Amino acid sequence: MQMVVTIVVLNWCHWTETVACLNSLRQLVCVYPVKWVICDNASSDDSFLQLTQWINAHFSPSDRAIYAEVLSENELDHGDHFPAVTLLPTGGNWGFAGGNNVGLRYALARMEAGYVWVLNNDTAVFPDSLQALLDCAETQPEVGLWGSTLVEWDAPQQVQCAGGCRYYPWLTITRPVWQGMSLAAAQQSVVIPRLDYVAGAALFFPVKVLREVGLLNDEYFLFYEELDYCQRLKSSGYTIAWCRDSVVRHRGSASVGHSANGNREQLKQANYYENLSTLKYSFNFHRSRFTVIFILRWVLKAAALIVTQRWFLLPPLWVAYRDFLARRDWRQEKK
């Protein structure tokens, strides 16, 4: 069987960041053939055109496949042609999991064996980032999902997280592992930190694991996809781990907004999905304590927003609770 590494990158309205990511991928050194699958989640700007032009400028016709129309279910799940780079429209804004799943399905239908690296489009890799993951994965087959060392975009000598995060289910709080530590100290440490889940900005899967455990759960539009996957993976007998020598720069998702950039509408939408996904995940995996979690999050989240005077984020909290109780799924409506 031919070993192949496929890199899946999802774009939504931030093609300049995606192009920066792709330019970094061109520098990768790897012992296996590397394929790229770029998915566009129905961007409302000219992302698809810009990505098409970039691909045409850097790859010959025989090395590229650009699909102007959404592939049918049969075309997505069956096929032999697998060029160096593929650009796929997903047909809607399906969120992180739904959009990446289009690329995963396309890749898995065309791979016999190997690995898949799901990267955020706001990342940039170093030449040896991928080979370091392969070196780890091929010596520890019991690991079903690897995380890279994420470093700050503007301060690449500072760790953003060492592979992933801790998660505290009673309080629904996440804490990035070794955030703020120097990269040199993290890489030289003999300590193996505990991870509850791998950070979603860089997810490295063996193909056999994706076939056994399945795709990302697109019940989550944004947030908690990686927590859900890590729980399912552990239930299948696999572990998760950090590959310290695989270093990836990460900006932090512009598409979900940030309080510092003044885009309140994006931030409100992101908070809605964070709250809704928290409830879905807690109900799915912590059901015995769910009633307490449900009340605690409401009280503590509302109190924190009031104390910090972020009044505009109270309605997304209320609406998320309402929609969870009504089993309403915005994933089908916000395309």
TrEMBL record:
SUPFAM superfamilies: Nucleotide-diphospho-sugar transferases. Gene3D superfamilies: Spore Coat Polysaccharide Biosynthesis Protein SpsA, Chain A. InterPro entries: Nucleotide-diphossugar_trans. Transmembrane segments: none annotated. Keywords: Glycosyltransferase, Transferase. GO terms for molecular function: glycosyltransferase activity. The keyword Amino-acid biosynthesis does not apply. Pfam families: Glyco_tranf_2_3. Belongs to the glycosyltransferase 2 family. PANTHER family: GALACTOFURANOSYLTRANSFERASE GLFT2, RHAMNOSYLTRANSFERASE WBBL. This is Glycosyltransferase 2-like domain-containing protein.
